[in-house]
Amino acid sequence: MATRHVLTDLAAAAVRAGLPEVELESVGGVDAAKRVAEGEKLDLVFLAEGALRRLADGGHVVADSVTPLMLSQVAVAVPAESEEPAAHDGGHAFPDAAGLREALQQASRIGYSTGPSGVALVKMIDGWGLGDELGQRMVQARPGIPVARSLAEGEVDLGFQQLSELVGQPGIRILGVLPPDCAIDTVFAGAVATAADDRAAALEVLRFFTSEAAAPIVAEHSFAPAGS
């Protein structure tokens, strides 16, 4: 879901470049991986790189086609009265991990996503020994419901999600991405499905998504290059 908008724009740019049109469907990563593993007829698959590698190991996507596309950083946001689209100034939410721990302990309700970023956040909190202290205050967003909405509607007062999912949302203020010593980054990748009717055409589209022409589109949606 975090990549749905950027993939839509990349697919449109590919068509303008004379490549085949791609019909995209965006669903949660767990559901997407399950559908691919069950053999659904697809040409291209876009998921977190780790999930794609597991699908490749199972023979569900072509292993040597797995291509890192973009790096997504987890950011932190709080509610805001403004309905202006939220922006990110490029900075960090806190100076270091100690600042993040303090903010977590002070928050009354903490929102996080169902995706890989949410899993990583919970793992990090448990690693700090704060799992029991924060357990009752952790609010996982329902599938398909962005953390930004939970913030804007007052359900949580501190929210964590992919930066690309927070930018442009009303009713929130983005504090910044997580500091380097506790950053949660996800590399999203694409691969050709083994069930693809025309693997060569699918691979050509996938390669366009990593081209110089694609780079400004990726940046416009608040993603960094996969090699960052």
TrEMBL record:
Signal peptide: none annotated. InterPro entries: ModA/WtpA. SUPFAM superfamilies: Periplasmic binding protein-like II. Pfam families: SBP_bac_11. Gene3D superfamilies: Periplasmic binding protein-like II. PANTHER family: BLR4797 PROTEIN, MOLYBDATE-BINDING PERIPLASMIC PROTEIN. This is Molybdate ABC transporter substrate-binding protein.
